[in-house]
From TrEMBL:
Main location: membrane
Domain Peptidase M48: 85-302
Transmembrane segment boundaries: 21-44, 50-68, 161-186, 198-218
Sections of the chain in a coiled coil: none
Protein name, per record: Protease HtpX homolog
This protein's UniProt keywords: Cell membrane, Hydrolase, Membrane, Metal-binding, Metalloprotease, Protease, Transmembrane, Transmembrane helix, Zinc
Native source species: Streptomyces maoxianensis
EC number: 3.4.24.-
Example GO molecular function: metallopeptidase activity
Highest rank taxon of the organism: Bacteria
Locations listed in the record: Cell membrane
Similarity section: Belongs to the peptidase M48B family.
């Protein structure tokens, strides 16, 4: 019920609602919450003496992730806010999209990176931030930039940014809690002679790995759908799917020319980027990507363009 409240409330924009996305968001939140409870329950069962510490750390990390994850993500990706005087073209494009969508204007930022990309973060429309890299601003035409920004702002309007942030948190928590549990268990004087402690030391990494895999799969399934949903919503809002398709083609093609070192730095944040940061030669990265393939995205935009062209 809490997940449904978070997803469903708030002012409605002119972005087309996506029931499929809403259903997947609620389902993901429910399953993530279920796995979260099971994981903490297993830790409490096998490490009875450490339960106060486990509950305290789990609670603090969850609250910190929810309230500060957007700021941490933006800082980690090198975003710095800019004024309309500092970036008039970017602010102008954001103003036009917000007016078209009838939604509050988010904070606007630029990341000093040659990787052509953009992202949006924020728990809701009041805390939202949209950021474009310097590499993107140099490469795109005004209509293409507006298409990308419309894509990113749809994530804010649909609230899927907040859901993705919480969903990705479980994998991080699994690793942190395992370290705490192992440290607590190994630190007990009788841990080497207690067979139950030995079993716990073997069981915890296995449970942690299973939790990470489940979290990874859930976030990937949601992330791929939400990118298609954002493309669809942006194309319908702007009425220019061809401009978004052009931006996608240009950004994806330029990735191959970016130094591998820069791509490696951007890759951990692929779930937030407009397009995944990896070279076209990295087939494994494509297989595990948080985004659908370029062909899938262009095919969808082509169908929307055909629909909009009909009487």
């Amino acid at each position: 019920m809490a997940g449904r409240t978070m997803v469903g409330k708030g002012p409605r924009s002119r972005y087309a609602p996506d029931r499929g996305l809403t259903t997947r968001m609620v389902t993901t939140m429910f399953l993530i919450g279920l796995v979260y409870v099971v994981f903490v329950g297993v830790l409490l069962a096998v490490l009875r003496g450490s339960w106060p510490l486990i509950l305290l750390i789990a609670g603090v990390l969850f609250i910190a992730q929810f309230w500060f994850s957007d700021r941490i993500t933006a800082f980690s990706m090198g975003a710095h806010e800019v004024t309309p005087e500092q970036a008039p073209e970017l602010h102008g494009a954001v103003d036009r999209i917000c007016a078209l969508a009838d939604m509050p204007k988010p904070r606007v930022a630029i990341a000093d990176s040659d990787v052509p990309n953009a992202f949006a973060v924020g728990r809701n429309e009041n805390t939202a931030l949209v950021c474009a890299t310097t590499g993107l601003l140099r490469r795109l035409e005004p209509e293409e930039l507006e298409g990308v920004l419309a894509h990113e702002l749809s994530h804010v309007a649909h609230r899927d940014v907040a859901v993705m942030t919480i969903a990705s948190f479980l994998g991080v928590l699994a690793g942190v809690m395992t370290r705490i549990a192992l440290w607590g268990g190994l630190g007990r004087p009788d841990s080497s002679r207690d067979p139950n402690a030995a079993i716990a030391m073997l069981l915890i990494p296995v449970v942690s790995a299973a939790v990470y895999v489940v979290s990874f799969l859930l976030t990937r399934l949601l992330s791929r759908y939400r990118e298609l949903s954002a493309d669809r919503a942006a194309a319908m809002l702007t009425g220019r799917p061809s401009a978004l398709a052009s931006a996608l083609t240009k950004v994806t093609g330029e990735m191959a020319a970016i130094p591998t070192r820069d791509l490696r730095k951007a890759e951990p944040f692929n779930a937030f980027w407009f397009a995944p940061a990896f070279s076209s030669k990295e087939s494994l990265s494509r297989l595990l990507s948080s985004h659908p393939t370029l062909e899938q995205r262009l095919d969808q935009l082509g169908r929307i363009s055909a629909q909009l062209g009909r009487p």
